[in-house]
Amino acid sequence: MPRIAFVVSSAREIDLRDSSKRPTGYWAEQALTSYELFAAAGADVVVITPDGNAPVVDPYSLEPIFHYPEEDRGYFASVYRTFRRDPEDIRITLQHLTDPELVASRRIARRLEVAGKTAAEARELVSRAAKAAWQHNRRLIEVMLAEGLDRGLAEASLRGAVEDLTTVACALSQDRKAQLEDIDGFRFPVALSELSGEQLGEFDALFAPGGYASMVDLPGNPDLARLVSILHAKGAPVSALSHGPALLLAAPERIDGQWLFEGFRVTCCTNEEEDQNAFGRLGMPWYLASALQNAGAILDDAPYPWTSHVVVDRNLITGQNLFSTAATAGAVLKALGLR
């Protein structure tokens, strides 16, 4: 049974340029999804924090916009693919991918079907409205009503579809929070500072989920440097997601004086993605992607933001953003021979 050191920051605040002591923590969906995938595959998952204090969920990660059901996200993705021949033809932002009216496309289409449209006709109507809303920065429902794409469907029904999506997303967010609070490891984590070299050597992989807290107490942590060095020396997977790669900044220098991961390809939350979210708009104290490049890593990001993107370079496995969770965990399991 492979043993995974599931490293989570225990920081609860971060100082931003325009907001000091901003509440933070680990990212809910990233932590829960990866933990459950590892456990379901038969791994022994040991939750570890630098000081042994219980980590907390980042309040921002519990916003409903980050908990839309996969079936709604999938349908919406199929909608915007109809008007983007090439990903670089349009600008994809976090606002687009989390807009409740756009993501409610599936539910709006279903209501059009109930009103008499075929599935294909409903998809065509929603796709036309989504394209106009996306290109001209308008609201989807406003476009449908103004251009007659609602086909007589009442505005209340259209808005009801969005309300249904939001209700489901709120419930899913709270359910994930409750599930995390039920996991003993998150309530009573192991203190990294108290583990001996021999105990660290018993781990077969390291994984760190994202969350802005990772930028507070993981870089430069001497105990994390010990863990990373021991696992890297035996070729064990060292993996992290989104802001989790901040742990790589704790890695020591090699015998030749170069950073341990000098020349490795790596990905993480990019500067562009950073600037589009709530924390970025308040002013990041520093950019993780730039810091990793300055340390000596080769940044390998997706051709456009907010895409699921995983980079595997030797034993180093990194995922770019919150949409890369399952793929990153899957790469770790593959490296461990569990998939």
Automatic annotation (TrEMBL):
This is Thiamine biosynthesis protein ThiJ. PANTHER family: DJ-1_PFPI DOMAIN-CONTAINING PROTEIN (PTHR48094:SF22), PROTEIN/NUCLEIC ACID DEGLYCASE DJ-1-RELATED (PTHR48094). InterPro entries: Class_I_gatase-like, DJ-1/PfpI, Prot/Nucl_acid_deglycase. SUPFAM superfamilies: Class I glutamine amidotransferase-like. It comes from the Bacteria. Residues 177-322 form the DJ-1/PfpI domain.
